[in-house]
Amino acid sequence: MTPVTITQIPVGEIHCQREPYSRELKTSCIACSEKPDKKGFYHVKLHDTVLFPEGGGQPYDTGFIDDIQVYNVQRKKLEHIHYTKQPVPVGQQVFVKLDWERRFDHMQQHSGQHLLSAVLEQEPYFIETGSWNLGATKSYIELESGEKKQRMPTAEELKQVQKHINQLILDAAPFLVHTETNNDSTNKPDSLPEDYVGGGTIRHIEIKGIDRGNACCGTHIKHTGHLQSLKLLHSEKARGGNTRLFFIFGQRVTDTLDASLIVSKQLNTLLSVPQESFVENVTKLQQARTTNQKTAKRLMGELAIYITNDIATQLKGKSVVSLYREDADMEFLQLISFAIRDQKLVDNNAEMNRAVVLAAGEKHVGGPVIILASSDAIIQQVAKTVMAGLDIKGGGKGRWQGKAKNWKGIDEVQKQLDQLTV
Ligand SMILES: [Zn+2]
Known about the structure:
Strands 1-2-5-4-3-6 form a 6-stranded antiparallel beta barrel. The model has no long low-confidence stretch (mean pLDDT 93). The protein is α+β, with helices and mostly antiparallel strands. It is elongated. The chain folds into 3 domains: 15-100, Beta Barrel (Elongation Factor Tu (Ef-tu), domain 3); 104-258, 2-Layer Sandwich (Threonyl-tRNA Synthetase, Chain A, domain 2), CATH 3.30.980.10; 290-419, Roll (Diaminopimelate Epimerase, Chain A, domain 1), CATH 3.10.310. It has helices spanning 15-18, 100-121, 155-171, 251-271, 278-314, 330-342, 376-389, 410-419; strands at residues 24-32, 42-46, 63-65, 68-76, 79-84, 93-98, 129-133, 139-143, 175-181, 201-207, 211-215, 230-237, 243-249, 320-325, 355-360, 367-373, 392-395, 400-404. The structure holds zinc ion. One of its GO terms (molecular function) is metal ion binding.
């Protein structure tokens, strides 16, 4: 790093925390690494910034320093570091611009999480939040069961919570920030990171009339009205009997509804019924599929017997019979091989040596092959002919099984098998 002459405004007091709605700022670059790191990023220190460094569960901001893109912002103790792919000249005035859409979304989810946790923590629920996660499309709070054997909210309670919070959004209750000087040894809350040391400021976020305050470094909305709307999603069991309750606030509610409507429209076209009939319609389709599968299985069984009878007739005139069907699969070959075994067509007690080759699959895709014969020696003899003419791998005693990469040479192989004497 180039030596620092101007000090940096520490995390806790940076512009994005004091003025979370500020989208740009004139400041100066006080340091920049001379070379990029292993991942190709320069580490840039600005005097102050409108880009929030990741912390408190809130992801980092992105934006620009002049026309240089900022990919990431991180906190190191009380310092903030911007990650760029081009160096930023040190000692010059710079103009920092925030990717506001990404940030405002984070503000809605983060402030929303404070409100959701506060409501659940109070009468009549008394359910505490252990941790939370802000995801790319949905977020969750983790309600810890833990030693306290905390109960989890019922579906009915969650409905009430959602209704209550959407009412609090209409009330536009202010978010207030209270600050105090960080004294590492006496007043550092447990929720602060271990390396948040060396002075700085601790910020407490109050939701007026709802939540008395939580230590939090995040950037928050002005009042609950800016949350726009809450939709609680599903909940999921997590380790230790915990429950993850998923939620979305603000624009994400509309985005999620949009995505659902697209799926609904596609299903409407596919099924030719309105949304309220989707479940009934798909249930009918599943039942029909089960019936069709049963019918297909029965017919395949019958067809396998007919084919086996035909093989039996052919075996009266020659010692090797081969069958290749493009439309068949392993399951069908198995049915034929079982019928051949049941009819004792290639038994080693038979008076005559015999072999049957069964192959299936489309010409260019290939597929399974089974060789059945009166003895292992005959199996090997037949397999040799099959392998010589086809791109195939396989093996086995008593019954040879393999897989061809394609069936391009099958006509020629069948001709040779026809003339083979075993
Ligand atoms: Zn927070």
